[in-house]
């Protein structure tokens, strides 16, 4: 179990290709739109609509790695793909939820991805993240985000995962294995705070970066997929529905927007101190839409 003590940055995670496997980093630069290299690549269908692991579960099994030339992707049973960062002039229209923007098409990857995923898709790269604003409902007009679902970073805490796993084990009578944090695809994981403390945060400092906590994270079917097999189940949604259900959704983690006064990246590292600069009284649950 996680102990309450000095809040620290326990781990950092980046996801180079949206919906694919992530990688743990000892340190990372924080840019205005998220961690350096986080979710700058995305798979889309022939019409430019984002393809995610919600509907194409095998995406979770792809293992991307950022290289000097672009991106390397490994898939079970296949030769790896090496793809160069595409020319920014090769823009195509793409849509991710309510965001409509353009991204550069890496056409040489399409045939490989078609075989691996079993459907016609294209690979695109977001060369300029300033094209995509964050939802104005929760953020400032000049906030930007890469190809994450909605916000630059997601923070979770070890204590909250421990509390959830207590419920998972209780519900299963001890038969279910504890869920790993990978299910929730966070960017930063904090240790040394109590369970669900992140619900109450409004401003937090990690290392040398100040963040606004702008919205709780409503969880989807991806969390029910085993990250090692892409096979589905009922957890954690079943247990979250017992203890973390508000407004018809289940919640785990909090979305963050970095405040970088001059826009220059700042590096954070595992073990950095985490300081809560502003918080509300506990008990209200995650930040969520006003009804």
UniProtKB/TrEMBL annotation:
Residues 121-277 form the MOSC domain. InterPro entries: MoCF_Sase_C (IPR005302), MOCOS_middle (IPR005303), Pyrv_Knase-like_insert_dom_sf (IPR011037). SUPFAM superfamilies: MOSC N-terminal domain-like (SSF141673), PK beta-barrel domain-like (SSF50800). Pfam families: MOSC, MOSC_N. GO terms for molecular function: catalytic activity; molybdenum ion binding; pyridoxal phosphate binding. This is MOSC domain-containing protein.
């Amino acid at each position: 179990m996680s102990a309450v003590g000095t809040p620290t940055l326990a781990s950092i995670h980046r996801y180079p290709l949206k919906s694919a496997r992530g990688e743990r980093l000892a340190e990372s630069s924080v840019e205005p739109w998220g961690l350096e290299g986080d979710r700058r690549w995305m798979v889309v269908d022939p019409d430019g609509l984002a393809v995610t692991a919600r509907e194409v579960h095998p995406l979770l099994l792809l293992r991307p790695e950022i290289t000097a030339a672009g991106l390397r992707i490994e898939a079970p049973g296949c030769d790896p793909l090496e793809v160069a960062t595409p020319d920014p002039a090769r823009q195509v229209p793409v849509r991710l939820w309510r965001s409509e923007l353009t991204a550069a098409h890496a056409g040489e990857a399409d045939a490989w991805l078609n075989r691996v995923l079993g459907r016609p898709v294209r690979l695109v790269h977001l060369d300029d993240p300033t094209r995509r604003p964050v939802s104005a409902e929760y953020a400032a007009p000049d906030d930007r985000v890469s190809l994450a679902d909605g916000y630059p970073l997601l923070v979770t805490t070890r204590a909250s995962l421990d509390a959830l796993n207590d419920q998972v084990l209780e519900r299963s009578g001890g038969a279910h294995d504890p869920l790993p944090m990978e299910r929730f695809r966070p960017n930063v994981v904090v240790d040394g705070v109590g369970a669900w403390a992140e619900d109450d945060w409004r401003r937090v400092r990690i290392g040398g970066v100040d963040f606004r906590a702008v919205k709780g994270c409503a969880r989807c079917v991806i969390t029910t997929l085993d990250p090692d097999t892409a096979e589905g189940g009922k957890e954690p949604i079943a247990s979250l529905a017992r203890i973390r259900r508000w407004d018809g959704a289940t919640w785990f983690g909090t979305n963050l927007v970095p405040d970088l006064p001059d826009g220059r990246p700042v590096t954070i590292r595992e073990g950095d101190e985490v300081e809560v600069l502003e918080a509300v009284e506990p008990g209200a649950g995650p930040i969520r839409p006003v009804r």
